[in-house]
Fold this protein.
Amino acid sequence: MHFRLHATHRLPRLISAPLGPAHLGHALAMHLRLIIANKNYSSWSMRSWVLLRQAGIPFEEVMLPFDSPQWREHMPRLSPTGRVPVLWIDDEAVHDSLAIAETVAELFPDAALWPEQGPAKWHARAVSAEMHASFNALRGAMPMNISANLAGFGDTPASRADIARVVAIWELCRARFGGEGPFLFGRFSIADAMFAPVVTRLRTYGVALSPVAEAYARAVLELPAVAQWCTEARGETAFVAHDEPYRPAPG
């Protein structure tokens, strides 16, 4: 599927990173195009973008800001569901962040985006799926808003219960599988990409963490891909009302 954005629209950018030999054949053979929305607000977009960027897989970024003319014009033909993210692989679309992660892991097996085998791999898949399907109270009370300082907002019994479960996941993974590095399963994996937006939420809303969870959160924020995403998110100026339950619109 080929398309062109008008000159007045934000054009796609090629996002690249150093590639090892294991990636190179795939990178030369296919064109990856990732459709995302605002970096300040779109947690689902962040998961796929961070995974590709941190793994060093080149892709073309297409930004369609929420509630924008670009979104209304291009989203119907770029996304089967009308949502982001969508990864176009040549002329095939893969939607949904977890499906994108699984697809990328299959296409680039030497990137080792899951733990190698056994209980670590099973558990990584399980907690990634839990992140994908659960924590609705946390999402609703504390929507991702990287540029904001909203300490104390969104603190409800339901959101606290979700946060307690997130912290329990992090502590268990670090204790059982984190011996080879600072991430949930030692090395960076899909599971870390899935939880990266939660880390930014907990910072935005000033949530205090246990020592183990705090160390993990710092490691995620220091990932080059996460740092780049957050820097670019803070540079955005769009105010999306449906993602801003606690701040008035500027002006």
Q: What stands out?
A: Residues 26 and 236 are 32 Å apart (CA to CA). The two ends are 40 Å apart (CA to CA).
